[in-house]
């Protein structure tokens, strides 16, 4: 009896190159001994060209995806930077610029100042700019008296009380109101025997209201003795009131200015110690007047072509601070 060989067998089929198509293979296993049945195994083999990715396609798609992600991250980053960094900085700069220029705007807004003895209604001091003519004293006094009467009428209805909003803001006066006469506004502040009336071109700012309240508090404190023993004379008030006014308002801004004669502008231009806006202002001053005098600082603001007027005012303030333009009466 022949022994049966058991185990694993392997065969190799050599196929020609560049062979394509579908082929059927039959594997027939026939043992030597008849006790084992011949077994046939059939299978199909598909031979085709190797699947090769198109050159650069996966890389191309990958770079597109990466580019889109980078773009999204960049947009979000820019928006975050704008929201949390750029805009707060811009608002801070604008607020700082406004704080530096608001004084100029408030002074330009003032058209007349009248300090009144409340009990008698007599103006103890007045200073006028353009709206009220100084030589019409009687009409001026009557106009002030009319304002006080209107103020009293309004105060019975809805004018500020000590516990009102203005009191909460820290203005600290007994009463503060602003009357709209269409052509001008009147900001009125009362405390004890005094009333301060500011005639304005436009509505007052919060800063101006605060300054007026500080002024009338100081006037009430420093003039209390004179008012208590007042004999009707205005001479003492003509001396004391301007001194107190100048502590709270730079009213010389409303007077004439001139370019300082001892300033070497040629050297400053060469050294570039002046900003472009400061140079523009100086050029406007020189073109306005042969003697380099400025009757009104606001004329410069109107003549310099710049959309953001705050930048002009800031430059004017800088020139005054550096004494390049100086008050004419100094």
In short:
Helix content is 46%, strand content 18%. It is of the alpha+beta class.
Explain what the structure shows.
The strands form three sheets. Strands 4-3-7-6-5 form a five-stranded antiparallel β-sheet, with helices on both faces. Strands 9-8-10 form a three-stranded antiparallel β-sheet. Strands 1-2 form a two-stranded antiparallel sheet. It has 330 residues and is an alpha+beta fold. The longest helix is centred in the first third of the chain and has 53 residues, at 57-109. The chain contains ten helices and ten strands. Among the domains are: 110-242, Beta-Lactamase; 257-327. It has helices at residues 57-109, 137-155, 165-168, 206-222, 224-228, 235-248, 265-271, 276-288, 297-303, 309-321; strands at 21-29, 39-47, 110-117, 122-128, 175-180, 185-191, 194-200, 257-259, 293-294, 325-327.
Overall number of strands: 10
How many helix segments?
A: 10
Question: Which regions have little confidence, pLDDT < 50, spanning 5+ residues?
Answer: 157-168
What is the gyration radius calculated from CA atoms? 45 Å
CATH superfamily name of the domain at 110-242?
Answer: Dynein light chain 2a, cytoplasmic
Q: Determine the CATH topology of the domain at 110-242.
A: Beta-Lactamase
How many strands, what sense, and barrel or not for the largest sheet?
5 strands, antiparallel
């Amino acid at each position: 009896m022949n022994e049966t060989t058991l185990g694993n067998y392997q065969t190799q089929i050599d196929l020609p190159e560049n062979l394509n198509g579908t082929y059927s293979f039959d594997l027939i296993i026939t043992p030597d001994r008849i006790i084992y049945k011949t077994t046939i195994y059939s299978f199909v083999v598909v031979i085709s060209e190797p699947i090769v990715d198109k050159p650069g396609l996966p890389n191309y798609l990958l770079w597109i995806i990466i580019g889109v992600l980078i773009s999204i991250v960049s947009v979000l980053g820019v928006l975050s930077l704008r929201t949390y960094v750029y805009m707060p900085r811009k608002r801070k700069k604008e607020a700082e610029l406004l704080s530096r220029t608001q004084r100029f705007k408030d002074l330009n807004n003032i058209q007349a100042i009248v300090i009144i003895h409340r009990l008698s209604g007599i103006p103890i001091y007045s200073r006028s700019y353009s709206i009220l003519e100084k030589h019409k004293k009687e009409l001026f006094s009557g106009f002030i008296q009319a304002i006080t009467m209107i103020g009293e009428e309004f105060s019975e209805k809805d004018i500020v009380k000590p516990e009102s909003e203005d009191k909460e803001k820290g203005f600290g006066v007994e009463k503060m109101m602003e009357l709209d006469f269409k052509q001008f506004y009147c900001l009125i502040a009362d405390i004890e025997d005094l009333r301060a009336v500011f005639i304005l071109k436009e509505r007052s700012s919060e800063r101006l209201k605060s300054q007026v309240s500080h002024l009338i508090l100081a006037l009430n404190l420093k003039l209390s003795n004179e008012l208590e023993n007042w004999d009707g004379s205005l001479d003492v008030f003509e001396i004391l009131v301007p001194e107190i006014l100048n502590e709270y308002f730079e009213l010389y801004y409303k007077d004439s200015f001139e370019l300082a004669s001892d300033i070497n502008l040629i050297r400053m231009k060469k050294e570039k110690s002046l900003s472009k806006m400061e140079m523009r202002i100086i050029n406007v001053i020189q073109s306005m007047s042969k003697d380099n005098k400025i009757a009104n600082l606001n004329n410069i603001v109107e003549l310099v072509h710049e959309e953001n007027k705050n930048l002009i005012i800031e430059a004017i303030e800088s020139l005054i601070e550096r004494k390049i333009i100086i008050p004419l009466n100094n």
